[in-house]
Amino acid sequence: MQLYLNTTSPYARLVRIVLIEKGLINAVTLNWCDPWADDPALLKANPAGRIPALVTEKGTTLSESMLIAIYLDSAYPEKPVLPVNCMGEVLHLAGLGQNLMEAAFTTVIARKHNGNEADNSVLGARRLRAIQRLLNQLNSELGEASVDAINLGEIAVAVALDYLAFRLPKLAWRADYPQLQAWQAGVISRVSFQQTAFV
Predict the structure, then answer these.
(1) Mean pLDDT across the stretch 53-62?
(2) What positions does the domain GST N-terminal occupy (predicted)?
(3) 162: phi then psi, degrees, rounded to nearest 5
(4) By C-alpha distance, which of 143, 160, 164 is closest to 152?
């Protein structure tokens, strides 16, 4: 398999963590690229020019981190990140994590192209309100992190929270949500998170 990615994409990091947790990382060639440079190999794997993009062993190209994670869990069922016995709960949490990731990512991109005044636009203000609502809900739902298995929902939330701290440090979510911070600290202590830390 081949995975197109970069070091700062939360979406690509989610897929890398899934690969590590499932013991598949050595079965994948990591193709580091700049999605803003219209890399020809990336565009062949995903014409939208977005990362991550996965090329399966059969040559099928997959895009979107959640779809890639679902494929990996189906094709390689050992060490599932989508356990059948609590699928609804895991997907609920994954959705919250994905929404937080998207709100943070689009805030970063808007600021990159339009400066911090992008936050004052209708869309910018809406994104920031969404981030606060999501943090409130996650803080109320998450308690102690599991030390054994990890699921896709937990991965998505922990990556999104780490991305917030990495790219939007002035939001200072850790100070405002100590319970959520304690939960996240337990998750990101895992080897898969340490090996994929944002740089």
Answers:
(1) 97
(2) 1-80
(3) -65, -35
(4) 160
Name the amino acid, one letter, at 54: L
Q: How far apart are CA 186 and CA 189, in angstroms?
A: 6
Q: Are strands 29-32 and 2-5 parallel, antiparallel or unpaired?
A: parallel
User: Considering the domain 84-194 in this protein, what is its CATH number?
Assistant: 1.20.1050.10
What pLDDT shows up at residue 116? 86
DSSP 199: -
- Give the pLDDT band of residue 30 (cuts 50, 70, 90): very high
Strand partners, 30: 3
**Domain spans in the chain, listed from the N-terminal domain onward:** 2-75, 84-194
Task: Please choose, from the candidates 62, 8, 68, 72, the residue with its C-alpha nearest in 3D space to the C-alpha of residue 35.
Answer: 8
At residue 143, the 3 state secondary structure works out as coil
Rama region for 120: left / alpha / beta (φ>0; ψ in -120 to 50; rest): alpha
| Fold that domain 2-75 belongs to in CATH | Glutaredoxin (3.40.30)
